[in-house]
Design a protein that fits this description.
Layout (H helix, E strand, L loop, with lengths): L3 E5 L6 H9 L17 E7 L2 E7 L11 H15 L2 E7 L6 H13 L3 E6 L6 H8 L8 E2 L8 H12 L1 H5 L11 H5 L19 E7 L5 H9 L17 E7 L2 E7 L12 H16 L2 E7 L6 H13 L2 E7 L7 H15 L7 E4 L8 H15 L5 H14 L4 E2 L2 E2 L2 E8 L4 E6 L7 H14 L8 E5 L6 H7 L1
Parallel strand pairs: 1-3, 1-4, 4-5, 5-6, 7-9, 7-10, 10-11, 11-12, 16-17
Antiparallel strand pairs: 2-3, 8-9, 13-14, 15-16
């Protein structure tokens, strides 16, 4: 039976560093700035022969519930409730602080088994902090260095002692859905180009939610899953890590990725914000569909368009969500205007689906998910070579490619070589001379003829192989 371990403690004691050490990857952002982590993050972890789920949490701070720090603390308290075991982390280098004792009382009242972890034990003078750690009354402190991987055997033994051998070892379950995202994405299958496989709705779908700060991304995800899973509030830039949330919609397994708000590059100066934006960009690259959340009261800022263009260049499926629709006074006129702007300002992908939503009231969220599913189906679509070349014959009969430098360009055939997104190879003479305007004409006609709206389409031009090229080289 799998169990959960929550890592808690005051800010800047190394909770996220320990989290990364246990999961074996640098998933959580780590910086010297106190309070980097804000949302709780869950991932499969391994400590030698122990397998469990670990929860990274925000630093405990004494603050009113209405403040950002108070809401962060509430998220940590939820993690304690979910956990079967608590790692209470203190800083052996700086010693015990007043907050440590207050939070130790909260953990003790929860009734959960606790392992007291004295991190940064490799530092000079850490022995004094180790002795102080006894004062919190949670048993013997386990000295470790999360950054350098020291003391982990002792931590393993402490887990077994706290839970008992039967519970600590449990069943050696496989990590379902917790492969590194890069491994999941790389190696897309290239099927027989003549086949048109049916859409597979049994595979989990990965959706990233991106946008400018304070557009309502976290609020929208909370509304979708009907749970206060992510930290929200009026402050801009609350989310820092890219947090994944597993969810089921109409029987379909979905993994949602919440990301940090992306400001213009010139405004991003702090190292921590740069790390947050880089984490969001990774989420885009590893997602299948990306929902760009626009603030409907101030849509189509330059940064919105740059984010959408990046997603298109990465080849991801794109859906636009106009959030805060409850604040719009003339919804019909505004929606018509926004859809006209979408077609005009994002001509790279014709037929983008744009849905008005309100994360506060829940309005439009089902329509948004319908648009996501439709875009995912198109993104995975394959067209047989036979249908493509019959379409190409009609195109060439009505609008053949122009002559360049007095010589007519000849197109031999077309075939689809990949999906996710749809990619095609066009065999033609002198590919370098083919006008880009004609390539765009082919792509747009292909999109309309085979019903492929709203996704990037790749068209690669190649010259046909010369069957006599080998003979000529042998003679020479």
């Amino acid at each position: 039976m799998s169990y959960k371990v929550a890592i808690i403690g005051r800010p800047n004691v190394g909770k996220s560093t320990l989290f990364n050490r246990l999961v074996g990857k640098k998933l959580a952002l780590v910086d010297d700035t106190p309070g980097v982590t804000r949302d709780r993050r869950t991932h499969a972890a391994k400590l030698y022969d122990l397998n469990f789920e670990v929860i990274d949490t925000a630093g405990f701070e004494t603050a009113p519930a209405a403040t950002l720090q108070g809401r962060m603390r509430a998220q940590t308290e939820i993690a304690i409730e979910e956990a079967d075991l608590v790692f209470f982390v203190v800083d052996a280098k700086s010693g015990l602080m007043p907050d440590d004792k207050a939070f130790a009382d909260i953990v003790r009242r929860s009734g959960k088994p606790v392992v007291l972890v004295a991190n940064k034990a490799e530092a000079r003078g850490a022995q004094g902090g180790m002795l102080e750690a006894w004062e919190v009354g949670l048993g013997e402190p386990i000295p470790i260095s999360a950054e350098h991987g020291q003391g982990l055997p002792d931590l393993r033994d402490a887990v077994i002692e706290a839970l008992g051998e039967a519970r600590a070892f449990g069943e050696d379950e496989e990590e379902d859905g917790e492969l590194p995202l890069a491994e999941v994405l790389v190696g897309e299958d290239i099927a027989d180009p003549d086949a048109e496989p049916a859409y597979d709705d049994t595979k989990p779908m990965r959706i990233a939610v991106v946008g400018r700060p304070n557009a309502g991304k976290s609020t929208m995800i909370n509304a979708l899953i009907d749970e206060e899973r992510l930290l929200t509030g009026p402050e801009a830039g609350i989310t820092r890590d890219s947090i994944s949330v597993d969810w089921e919609w109409r029987g379909r397994q979905i993994r949602l990725f919440d990301t940090a708000g992306m400001r213009r590059k010139a405004k991003v100066q702090e190292k921590l914000e740069k790390l947050s934006v880089a984490d969001g960009l990774r989420a885009i690259r590893f997602a299948e569909i990306v929902v760009v959340v626009f603030d409907a009261t101030i849509p189509f800022e330059k940064q919105d368009l740059q984010i959408a263009d990046l997603i298109i260049r990465e080849g991801r499926g794109l859906v636009l969500a106009f959030n805060k629709w409850d604040l719009i006074e003339n919804p019909q006129e505004t929606l018509a205007e926004l859809r006209e702007k979408t077609a005009r300002l994002l001509p790279q992908v014709r037929g983008l689906l744009a849905v008005p939503v309100s994360a506060e009231t829940g309005r439009g969220l089902d329509k948004l998910m319908d648009a996501v599913l439709k875009t995912h189906q198109v993104w995975n679509r394959r067209v047989s070579t036979g249908r493509l070349n019959r379409w190409l014959e009609g195109i060439l009969a009505h609008h053949p490619p122009p002559a360049v430098a007095g010589r007519r360009l000849k197109i031999k055939y077309i075939t689809q070589v990949k999906a996710r997104p749809p990619g095609f190879v066009l065999s033609c003479t002198r590919p370098e001379a083919m006008p880009q305007s004609y390539v765009r004409y082919l792509v747009n006609n292909l999109r309309d003829s085979f019903d492929m709206p709203g996704v990037p389409i790749r068209m690669v031009l190649r010259a046909p192989e010369n069957p006599f090229a080998g003979r000529a080289s042998k003679r020479s």
